[in-house]
Write a structure and sequence with these properties.
12 helices; 311 residues; alpha/beta; single chain
Length: 311
Amino acid sequence: MNTPVAPSLTSLLGFGCGRLNGGSDKATSLRLIHAALDQGIRYFDTAPPYGLGASEAVLGEALKGRQEDVTVATKAGLARPASPGLMQKARAVVKPLARWVPGLRQAVLKGMARRAPAGNFDAGFIAQSFETSLRQLQRERVDCLLLHEAQPHDTLAPLQALLDRYVANGQLGAYGSSTGEPMNQLVRFGAVSQYRCPAPGAQWTPVDPEDVLHGALRFVAPAIGPAMVRDPQLKARLASLLPAGANPASATGSLALAYALARFDRRLLISTHQPQRLATTLEQVRHITASADWQPAMSALHGAFKRAPAP
């Protein structure tokens, strides 16, 4: 059995549930949540559209019967898929074909993005979304509700009274806003802000205690391989942080998380669709952050990012 992440580290990590799917992938999705719990993760971030509309229900089922004290964050503002069951079946057909048809997955994702409805922040819509989320999650209370991809033109002020009522009656712990973009594109609302991890080597702006970052695996990890190619000494230093036998070229996700944790002492979301990869990554992160050279090595990596040639 893999060693759970140390509590001090676990408190800074959360699991992003965007890849929790129903249908034929449901069993794997349930195992993902159980693996996260077994590794010490206690913060779970989901949303009505995630997993083609199945993420909240799968998370609720996975947490049912478990004894861990968890924090659940969900969102409101973007509609659930109109026909999640049909979309799951379509995904099951496209997924194997995507291995053989170049560009198919990207074309499908672009088509879905074009058909995605605009955000709706009307109080009635937000109330219905939140109440549906409670049912899907099989919970009487959600710890955090984030307005999902609000834009500068959206009128959000009338929502404060609604969300304050949810807090007062015990159905909601806190509320805020979220975006898949960097912090400067976030429309701030409430106490909690969730946004993309800054680019590798970027100057880090001071953040609020309740901020949540995501995207280290997606946006930081790809820059680590080229940095190691340019600097063999850096590669050897990063390799020394990993468990014996681990290849740093295959551990860029773990190194990206360690880099973000070193640069940012607030909540950091991670995501994967493979339970074993989650366990391996967290074990590597635990090993890296236990090293006396963790912080200095991440400073060296940061310097390598800053020296990288412009794309």
